[in-house]
Specification:
The structure is a single chain. Helix content is 54%, strand content 5%. It is flat, with a radius of gyration of 25 Å.
Amino acid sequence: MKFMSKATYGSTGNLLDAGTDLNMEQGMAEHAKDVILLTAIVQGLSLMSNYFWLFWFLAPGRAFYLLWVNILGPWFFAPPPDNEQNDKKLRKQERKMKKFR
């Protein structure tokens, strides 16, 4: 976490990377904090029973959920492109080409 928030400077002293805001929502720091928190909870609960280690399956489940919601789902279920708009653009381009001939 310390490495993520550290600023990086160039050889001339210019700021190259300001680092990551650790309190930013939906950023990598938030997901890293979630994994650290899950680890602490699992370790604490596993003192009572070894079956609490099964809570570790929550981490890949959440990763797949975020992948589905942010990337795969919108890509699979995106509406098809509007053909009328493409036809209009093609007709407009044809008219422009006729003017220049």
